[in-house]
Amino acid sequence: MGRVEGKVAFITGAARGQGRSHAIRLAQEGADIIAVDIAESIPGMERFYPGATEDDLAETVRQIEALDRRIVATKADVRDFDGLKAALDRGVAELGHVDIVSANAGIFMFGDQTQLVTDSDWQTVIDINQTGVWHTAKAVIPHLIEQGTGGSMILTSSTAGIMGTPNVAAYTASKHAVVGIMKTLALELAPHSIRVNTVHPTGVATNMILNEATFRLFMPDQEHPSQEEAAKVFQSTNALPIPWVEPVDISNAVLFLASDEARYITGTQLKIDAGYTLK
Amino acid sequence: MGRLEGKVAFITGAARGQGRSHALRLAQEGADIIAIDICEALSENTYPPATEEDLTETVRQVEALDRRIVATKADVRDFAQVKKAVDDGVAQLGRLDIVSANAGIGGTPHHSEDIPEDEWKNMIDINLSGVWRATKAAIPHLKAGGRGGSIILTSSDAGLFAYENISHYVSAKHGVVGLMRTLALELAPDFIRVNSVHPTTVNTLMVQNEGTYKLFRPDLENPTQDDFAAAATTMNALPIPWVEPIDISNAVLFFASDESRYVTGVPLAVDAGAAIK
Amino acid sequence: MGRVEGKVAFITGAARGQGRSHARRLAQEGADIIAIDACEDQPNIPYAGATEADLAETVRQVEALDRRIVATKADVRDFAALKAAVDEGVAQLGRLDIVSANAGIGVNPLSTDEIPDEVWKDMLDVNLSGAWRAAKAAIPHIKAGGRGGSIILTSSAAGLRAYANAGAYVSAKHGVVGLMRTLALELAPDMIRVNSIHPTQVDTDMIQNEATYRLFRPDLDHPTKEDFAPASQTMNALPIPWVEAIDISNAVLFLASDEARYITGVTLSVDAGSNIK
């Protein structure tokens, strides 16, 4: 029997990267999936990395169905509460309930000293990474409370939710904020046996960091740093001798927190960071 | 008027280094001092021990500020010695308000699995249990005064995060945070505040010695102070290799004074930003 | 296939309670076990110690799962005994991958300034230094395997925050976090991961005893389990008085398994939210 057999998981940012990996890992262990993704590029982000597409989201659907699990996928933006709620409500109507929440959708924009960050970049990052997590919680909590069967919410923060990094102000602020949201929700929802925790990855091998703009953040002297060169610098930030972790490593932590094996874990910040925050 | 006018402070490890600096700074602001130090060699240390002459020099410097001081040779591993020194000091100076549990050793670097049993035990006994014994000896006097008080435990940046090759030191200094938090809870009803200070590298003999140089520069056979300075600077966010004892003393003074009257249970890093790097 | 199939786990304090539960859970998922326990009444501890019959029962339960177990009566205060037990276990079982440094003693409630020196020292010797000795005995074997490994130190909610009248326990469990962080840094190059677990109250003999009941219910002369439950529940955010040993075992299993292959240096609370209250 799967470790989350018969449960339904709501995952934001599920078109690719960590979100798709979470969907697959939870489905492998028996969960059905409600997936949302903006599935388009966001103004301002192209200079870092391209946005997810509708094809990406369709590929997530294909992979979940290949596991013989059901999935309800919708193109929706976590900044748009009504759209997000409608997507979730439709998923709950089709799949019967929702038990697990992975608030995973996020954006990484960076590179300017804090006083030079533009209003639009700042607002985009805060709207998606911080307000988006709140919207996700706000949409799902009524379902969880009404069902009365507990639940597990996993909010994706970052090592940037624990430590600072120069020239990454908005992202760092938003990921610290996720911890504040988590702690508040954990207290508010504990009487309903709904658990709320954060995961804090170091660099994960996805489009979000495997791009030249991110490499330059770590190697500002080089015009076109290669992935091989970047790997060395990334590795120097981790304690374990690896440059980055894979999406499945975050998914395994999400799975643990989602499962009943973690039935009494709430309010916890779980780092999957190869020792990044130790160094 | 001094910021600690009329108060009495008990300081362990007061013969030199940070302890002497705390004694002078608190005395400058009006406090009388009860000072202890082991004034003896400790086998684990790769730097010369404090001596009775050092303690005498602390006495001389405090008295030069026109403050009183009762100084005793005593070892924080021996509760009876610590208690007697505090009791004598309070008998002579009339009260007790402030504790700076500062005595500590640096230890010799080893990988965790290579630390000899006696070095591990001695480290815990001095840097953690010794801090507890200082508070234990002082608390009855603080309570008896009925005026509250302030206990400042010297932990370290190594009480907030880890450094390789000194797990006994890191364990002891993390333990000090646990002790600080527990005492803060227990003593709050008596308005006795308990906080900890967490220095980065401080410019004293405890770090200015070849053992520490080697800990920071395992790549060099005979590292010098300059070699160490370069490595120590990378630890800190501010572009400095180390802080001075007076910087820790100023933090201790803040905690000791009524300026921090509602601050308790707080770990204060005086660390040039090492903890955020 | 089990989640730790083919691996060998060394567990201290394995005769009963959390330790036995860890042994069983890891064995269910395919691990062989090296188990030790002092199997004796402990001085200064307000509940009966584990017995040799308890350890034999752990052996029986692991063998009933068709896994191998090498169990030895050994005390974490005694490095030589600990090392002999691990060496013998590895000789018989062929490798070592996982360490659960679980042995610990509970709180005899006293305000921190009233703890006798021998009680303080014993607490640190078992709950802090014992974890270090377990790691020290195991590390050479894990390194020799060249496959990496996972060391899980059992701290406590009291390793992250304080409780009044548990000063020695809180200090020791904070110290365990320092040890964990140092080991994580030192062993990362060998892909040996080191993490700590921080349980709230667990339903074992260590807390289900009158001394713990009195710690939580100082208002009652002879508090019972029923009196303790609501007081214990106020510590937790989730509406439960305590967690079960299996909940800690599931967290140990996760950290022991390759699912956590890039998790190191982490404090994992299994605490029903007590740390955020």
Summarize it:
The complex is a heterotrimer of chains A (279), B (277) and C (277). In chain A, 43% of the residues lie in helices and 14% in strands.
Characteristic key phrases:
heterotrimer; B: 277 residues; alpha/beta; 7-stranded parallel β-sheet; C: 277 residues; 7 strands
Describe this structure in words.
The complex is a heterotrimer of chains A (279), B (277) and C (277). Chain A contains 8 helices and 7 strands. With 279 residues, chain A is of the alpha/beta class. Chain A folds into 2 domains: 8-205 and 245-273, NAD(P)-binding Rossmann-like Domain (Rossmann fold, 3-Layer(aba) Sandwich), CATH 3.40.50.720; 210-243, no CATH class. Chain A has a 7-stranded parallel beta sheet, with helices on both faces. In chain A, α2 links the parallel β2 (32-37) and β3 (71-75). In chain A, α1 crosses α8, α4 packs parallel to α5 and α6 packs across α7 (227-237). With 277 residues, chain B is an alpha/beta fold. Helices cover 43% and strands 14% of the residues of chain B. Chain B contains 8 helices and 7 strands. A 7-stranded parallel beta sheet of chain B has the order 3-2-1-4-5-6-7, with helices on both faces. Chain B is globular, with a radius of gyration of 18 Å. Chain C is of the alpha/beta class and 277 residues long. Chain C is built from 9 helices and 7 strands, in the order βαβαβαβααβαβαααβ. Chain C has helices spanning 17-28, 52-64, 79-93, 117-127, 129-145, 167-187, 210-216, 225-233, 245-256, and strands at residues 8-12, 32-37, 69-73, 98-101, 149-154, 192-199, 267-270. Chain C starts with 7 loop residues before the first strand and ends in a 7-residue tail after the last strand. Chains in contact: A-B, A-C, B-C. Chain B binds chain C through residues 79, 111-113, 115, 117, 120-121, 124-125, 128-129, 132-133, 135-136, 139-140, 158-159, 161-168, 170-179, 181-186, 265, and chain C through 79, 111-113, 115, 117, 120-121, 124-125, 128-129, 132, 135-136, 139-140, 158-159, 161-168, 170-179, 181-186, 265.
Order of strands side by side in the largest beta sheet of chain A? 3-2-1-4-5-6-7
Class based on secondary structure composition and strand pairing of chain B? alpha/beta
Measured between the Cα atoms of the first and last residue of chain B, the distance is 39 Å
| Rg over C-alpha atoms of chain A, rounded to the nearest angstrom | 18 Å
Number of E-state strands of chain B: 7
Derived from helix and strand composition plus strand pairing, the structural class of chain A reads alpha/beta
Instruction: Summarize model confidence as the mean pLDDT of chain A.
Output: 96
Strand order, sheet with most strands of chain B: 3-2-1-4-5-6-7
Oligomer: heterotrimer
